[in-house]
Structures are given as C-alpha cells and as structure tokens.
Specification:
Elements: E1 3-11, H1 15-27, E2 33-37, E3 53-54, H2 64-74, H3 81-100, E4 127-128, H4 134-146, E5 152-156, E6 158-164, E7 184-189, E8 195-205, H5 226-233, E9 238-239, E10 244-251, H6 265-269, E11 273-275, H7 295-309, E12 314-317, H8 323-329, H9 331-339, E13 349-358, E14 361-363, E15 375-377, E16 382-383, H10 396-414, H11 439-455, E17 459-460, H12 462-485, H13 490-511, E18 520-521
Parallel strand pairs: 1-2, 1-8, 2-5, 8-15, 14-16, 17-18
Antiparallel strand pairs: 3-4, 6-7, 7-8, 9-14, 10-13, 11-12, 12-13
Amino acid sequence: MSRTKTDILILGSGIAGLTFAIKMARQFPDRQVLVLTKTVEGETNTRYAQGGVAAVWNGEKDDFEKHVADTLDAGDGLCKEEIVRIVVEEGPERVREIIELGARFDKEKGSNEYDLAMEGGHSEHRILHYKDLTGWEMQRTLMEEAARYPNITVKEHYFALDLITQHHLGRMVIRVTPDIECFGCYALNKQNGEIDTILARATVLCTGGGGQVYKSTTNPVIATGDGVAMTYRAKGRVENMEFMQFHPTSLFNPAGDNPSFLVSEAVRGHGGILKSAEGEEFMQHYDPRLSLAPRDIVARAIDSEMKKRGTDCMYLDCRHLEKESFLAHFPTIYEKCKSIGIDPMKDMIPVVPACHYMCGGILVDEHGRSSIHRLYAAGECSSTGLHGANRLASNSLLEAMVFAHRVFLHIKDNLHAWEYKEEVPDWNAEGTTDPQEMVLITQSIKELKDTMSYYVGIVRSNVRLQRALDRLFLLYRETEDLYKTTTISPQLMELRNLITIAYLITRSAAHRKESRGLHFTTDYTGQLSFVEHSVL
C-alpha cells in the first residue's frame, strides 16, 4: 500500500477529465494534477462518440434561441432552462478552444467552412464532426495536449474503489449530513493488486456512464457507473436515474457485440430512412419529424414495430444515398457493415435500440459542485439539468467541455483554502481471502443485465419494476457477502457498482408515476406525476 498526495485528483480520462486537467495544469504549473483511469488513457466513453458536437456555428441560419428550444423540447419539460442557456451560449467558445488545440472537424469540400450536420431533434445544421469518429478525434487532441504538461500525471490501470469522507475517520455520515467532505479516494492498482490511499485538495469525477447495466449497449465495457455508485455510497445526491437513453439505431448483429456497434444519428440526418423488412416506412405513425424525431420517440417506435411484427430488428435504408458522400462521412460504419456481409449501398442496415446514455447522475450545480464539499463531477456521470428527461443528440460532448471549464473556474478560486486530511487511514482488508469461484461474480453480472433488460428497458410497468427491485435485492445481498469476505477485484467492484446503478434506475423509475421522455410506463401514459426531479 502507498499514500499519494496531489492537489487535484481526476477520476476518468475522457473529454471532461482531460479538458479540466489541461486547464488546471496551465493555470497552476506548480500544482500537481493526477488523472486515474481504470484501463488505458484512450479507452473512454468519449472515444466511442460518433456523431459530433452540437454548437451554434452559422450565425446567419442558426442562433442560441433555436438550440435552446430544441434542447428544451427534447428534454420534455424537465431541463433546467438556465443550465441549457449556459451550455448553449458558452459552448461555441469551448469548441473553438479544442479546435485551437488541433481537433480536425470536417469541412465542406473545396471550402474552409465546417460541414455542419443535422441530427434528430435539431432544427438546424449545427453538428461539427470528424467523419464518424468525432469522439476519437477529440480524445486524440486532448491526450496529445495533456502530454505537454509535466504537472499532469496519468496513471493507467487504477480502479477507484471508494471516495474518502468523514465516514473513514469514524464519524457517522448519512444522506442529510450537511458538511460531508471528500478528501480523495482509495484506488486499486490493478498491476500489483495493492490498494493506494490518494489524498487530494479537490476531487473531480469524470467517470462516464453506466450502460453496461444492460445486455445491449453502445457503451464500452468500462462503463459500469463507478463514479455515480461511489458518490451514492458516500451519501452524495443523485438524480433522474430513470432516464436512460436508448439509441434507436445500433447495428443488429446476430453473432453479438459488446459493445453494440453504433449507427450514428448523423446517418439519418444525412438522409437514411427507417423502414420495415418489407421496405415500408413507419415513423409517420409516431411523429411528424419522421426519422429525425428525438431519440426517445424513435427508440420506442422501433421497439413497438419489432413487437407488433415479431421481428428481431428494423432497418435503416441508405441505398438511395450517394456512395462517395456516404463513404466520406461514415467510413467506419460502412466498413463495419461490410464486415458482417451488409453493403449499405445495396442492403438495408438492420438496427435495434441499445442503451446509450445516462441522462441522470450525480446532482451538481452550475459550477459542477456535488452535494459533497470538494467533490465535483462533469460529463456523463453528472446531472447538470441540461438533458432533462431525454438528451438532444450531440449535446453531451458540448456539456462535458462547458462544465469542465466551469469546474476549473470554481476550483481555481477556492483551491488555496483546502488542505489534505492527513489522518485518513489506509484501506483495511483484514479478514478477507482470495475469491475461490469467479463464476459467482460473472453469473451475477449476467443475471443483473437480464433483469434490467427485461424489466427496466424502453417500456416499463409497475409489475416489472417491482420484480426488478426484488431480484436486485437478492443480488445486492449476495454480492455484499462476497465483498465482506473476499479480497478486492475489479470484477467484484464493477458488479457492486452495477447493482447500485441498477437499483437507482429502478427505484427512480418506480417513483415517477407518469410517462415522460425516456421513462415510458404502460401504467401511466399521461403526465400525472408530482415528481419534478427524482433526487435520491
């Protein structure tokens, strides 16, 4: 075991984490910035973002009010308008910053103007993109810039286990304790098996989403909700977890993929049309915006059509599109389709909804502050109020950059007042032994994914939610027994975190007695709830 002190501790190396790290390192060259990532630096949710980043760029055709209105409409009445305005109005400057760092967004052929794409729910072309690898390009840019600063240290293969608060000093901490403070975290060094104590003046969670709670997800295998679960265990506030966004169009592959391969929203913005196997369009029965309706509407429409027709998938028809343009915009999608025997220029692309984005998360204010002092959150693990009941496509990368900047501004002005908590004890593993049967963990993960997929998916009901809660309680009890008696492993901790995420989603869904946005229940089809934001 070792003890480390750092001025700033960042958990996660995606767009939010590295944007914040660069800003802090540049502002305070004498301060140490430590970034922990549980695999390698480039393996993040950011890397898998295909479509792009939404920003008002063409002032002649677009404006802030249009982007605000589109975001509020997609959020189905639960967005915090003041936050929406902050993100929309500050967003273009954050995009300019990453362009200055070297991000290569696509430009129109023979022009110096950016090739702005259209996506579902947007009223104008405002999506900046790099082919169908926008997240990868932004991740590359930030990693190269972060490497220039000697006071940024990135430690790979470190798994954060728990946030350190007064609880670890022997004080009773409950959810209504008014002055909970975060002093850093305990982290498992996956390469030597030791658990390190890391003390920090400020801690920033940029841990991404929790899509691996479902069987079918576009999220990478690292997306196990670690930051949200740690915050909830530390008695921090979490909200709106019932709003899990299912992307309407992941590639249907009977052989199975984990993660599921995403067929970007931008393909429909480019002219792709949703159809049945017989070539019939169906979105006209669900929304006047047809295939460019917001994601919650499209995902439910596809799910409904699959159930009515008894089919495994629906289809995205791109056969009418010009091949050269399709290849220029979507080379990765084209090659993936070809690899499983589908030519998008000759065959319709089979698609199914897959869990994609967590719209709720750690409750934060306009500065990214959580309910725990000296603990901040940015990116998908946070709930800022931007997304409400449903995220507008390509708003997530924008939000991550805007709030990374806002967290930076707030910590910059307060860091001098915070000290280390020297009396924090080291991790206590006394009385634990190595796990004898890993099958106990792997089978529990399978049961968890089945439970969430069958009972807490795109369409829910009171009976399904109660059944899920009953199953989750059994899994929780079995897993906590394992946790108390066996030595820590990444698999065990991910299982614990996934169970917590599953519980938060299901419990929040049970509290919302209405259908709204991404939460659709057959028991309440009208908006009847007195719940505005489900804070747990």
